[in-house]
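U., I forgot to send this yesterday:
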Amino acid sequence: MSLKMSHISAFFGLGVLIILVSGTLGRSQSETPGLLSLESLKTIRFTKAGASDQAAALSYSDLSDVIAACRAYSRGLALLPNYHDPILTRGQTGIAVFKKVSPSVVLVVTGDIKNEQFSETGLGTGVIINESGLVLTNWHVIAGSQAGAIFLKPEHGTDPGQNSAYWARLVAQYPQADLALIRFIKPPAGLTPVKLGEIALIQVAEDIHIIGHPHGHLWSYSTGVVSQIRDNYDWKYSDGSAHLAKVLQMQTAINPGNSGGPVLDDAGNLLGLVAMGEEGQNLNYAIAIDVIRGFVSRSMAARSRGIEARNELPKGDFYTGQTKDGVLVTKVVYSDLVSYTIRNSKGSVVELIAETSDGATLTGIKPNAFGGFGQWSLRLANGETVVANSAGMAPELISTSKAN
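Result:
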């Protein structure tokens, strides 16, 4: 049975407050042009245009990344208030391993969550493997997504206003072995990587330690033993994906949400990455460290770390319009969202507003030198507002907002 992480109904620390100012079509020329409300944009008379006539500021994939980042943060944030450091009862070794390695363990949440329900992908565990922001996780945790929101272990409390997440992109994947590497878009200072162990030093009956997020219980600790090392072990997940790799067979308590979590020795060295288990048999499996080492080495040595090409993206219908004050607007209609790129009378982009099919509103302000926006705000249909900062095209730091 797969241990794929469940989705949660709600996608660390700096708090960022953004006050959104909505304009109207009757705004005077002395005010900043382009800051229009969604309601006023809908009153403009638009004319059908070709994509080359008046391009949108951002592509569909760029918009999807920002929306997914904010949604993923929202869902991950809902778990934080329930977190508290576990009470460890397995002796000094377990306590020492948890204290040493838990800061290297992250919560990974993707934004591809349907119907606000628990699902087989979208939330799992990851482990930081270097100071530059590489995170190792299972392929099945990130499968179907190009990025995820990364939550670091809270240091002091779990107040949403004091906890932010970081957006990370998929940089390498090894579906056969169920491994993936993601990288922080802008890694924070002071990341603590886990030390990689050696397969030759792993012994059957050796004690092991595991940290993960079983059933959404964040940064939980469990222990067990290595019961066997199996070469060329094959398994399948419920989505039909087939996998093959050397694995550690373990006797330990593993549940959905532990996927992508580290298996550690008494010194806190990484021996494997939790992947799956067999329900009712207390048999669980982790990708062995030599497979991990080979994957990481190949990925870091590759001159190009681009992700596999996305599936063909939706093509939007383009329209152009203009206000009485000379504000130019490009409207692009996609199957699941409508975007409005707003320019001043000189043609410079000043703002972007998009509305999703489920009623969420995305606003981008403060255009930057890279063609993106310095500040984003996503107002969800339930009234919650999530904000994201960016120095380029992709979101970096994601926070909650009290803006209404």
